[in-house]
Amino acid sequence: xxxxxxxxxxxxxxxxxxxxxxxxxxxxxxxxxxxxxxxxxxxxxxxxxxxxxxxxxxxxxxxxxxxxxxxxxxxxxxxxxxxxxxxxxxxxxxxxxxxxxxxxxxxxxxxxxxxxxxxxxxxxxxxxxxxxxxxxxxxxxxxxxxxxxxxxxxxxxxxxxxxxxxxxxxxxxxxxxxxxxxxxxxxxxxxxxxxxxxxxxxxxxxxxxxxxxxxxxxxxxxxxxxxxxxxxxxxxxxxxxxxxxxxxxxxxxxxxxxxxxxxxxxxxxxxxxxxxxxxxxxxxxxxxxxxxxxxxxxxxxxxxxxxxxxxxxxxxxxxxxxxxxxxxxxxxxxxxxxxxxxxxxxxxxxxxxxxxxxxxxxxxxxxxxxxxxxxxxxxxxxxxxxxxxxxxxxxxxxxxxxxxxxxxxxxxxxxxxxxxxxxxxxxxxxxxxxxxxxxxxxxxxxxxxxxxxxxxxxxxxxxxxxxxxxxxxxxxxxxxxxxxxxxxxxxxxxxxxxxxxxxxxxxxxxxxxxxxxxxxxxxxxxxxxx
Length: 530
What we know:
Blueprint: H1 2-11, H2 14-41, H3 55-83, H4 85-103, H5 109-137, H6 143-169, H7 184-205, H8 210-215, H9 219-230, H10 297-307, H11 313-344, H12 351-359, H13 361-375, H14 377-398, H15 403-429, H16 437-461, H17 466-485, H18 511-521
Helix pairs in contact: 2-5, 2-6, 2-7, 2-11, 3-4, 3-5, 3-16, 4-5, 4-7, 5-6, 5-16, 6-7, 6-12, 6-13, 6-15, 11-15, 11-16, 11-17, 12-15, 13-14, 13-15, 14-15, 14-17
């Protein structure tokens, strides 16, 4: 899809680019608020009889949103590859917001957990969509920076959540309630407000990804969106064929040489129904390959999911899964339990240091903005995780000796983790071909949610053993950092659909990897059956 790269690189209108970035960033912030909200009201939530929750109940409550995110991440990633990035994103935001508001009316813990699971499905489905949409719309030269902007708004969401919790649930500097009589219910409603504001903005301001539309054969829509983005005239015919790198040789259309993957159908504009069969190397014969599989959505799920484990993508996918598992275990675990942890180590107004913990996102974001294109995604990710692990170990050894130093160490952990997350978000979206980019992101997201769910129960069981909790967190983060060093692909400065570096070390490419990558790029994710 070199034509798309050329158009985006030659000049997306600044106003349009800024609006897209802002909407996607706000979507990420809204997700952050919903994810972190339960950790803030966990310290004040009580059973119907006024008793405190048991450690097991706390773990189920904090884990509820991650249960939903686990399912939402996988299903949302596949749905985005089949039904579109924008539509899936707006649907997931709506589900997140509605479930969040309704959860405020829960009469007992069971109903609260149920609605938090539904909100989690919305959050989990939105994450792969918003980062994939950004990766496919931003210019190559500045893609990493803009993806970092989007990722950085997790900080905005965390500060909003921490600030709202402090005002609604916390104490002032004299030790008095700021809003006497307010409970966790208005806080949950306040946490859902950013989702609805973002949903309205996304419906009117976000375009669908031209890469996705071209992959689906919807050339007229793709041309329209590219005209909207660049202000230049783009004809549907100029997009047919996807460029030289998208072309398959005759032997690559043989099912035996493509690992049984679906091959491209004859190019067709779905809007007008006009034949665009003049595309290079798009013979009529390819439209009849595996005809029985067309229209069967469940086969498309399996094909798209299996594709990320084929050829040279296998190693990248597996190592990224390890990094996501370890980083989610540490960051989501601590972010959710941090208020409780501060209370356990003897801090009376736990919402104040929690607010400082949220502010610690800022230096991490600034560092990632400056370094992501200079150091590259891999090195920034690995070094950030190593420094985060070191901060966790410092907390483990100071939490019972110097409370203020433990708070500083926790803030450092958050700052370094955020820098790592910004690098990982960019690296992950850039490591998969267009046809299965959100499927790959959904798989990674699901891996992270599973890890986060485990962290809720591990951290819950170690609630009163804070030093051991941070030691476990630091150890898993070190494992993720070492894995990040061994990731086979550095996408910094590469075309999103380019082939350089896909085979392993940057600048080297094996013929077999080129064939596999091209077959991935030509997967027909299906135009029918949904």
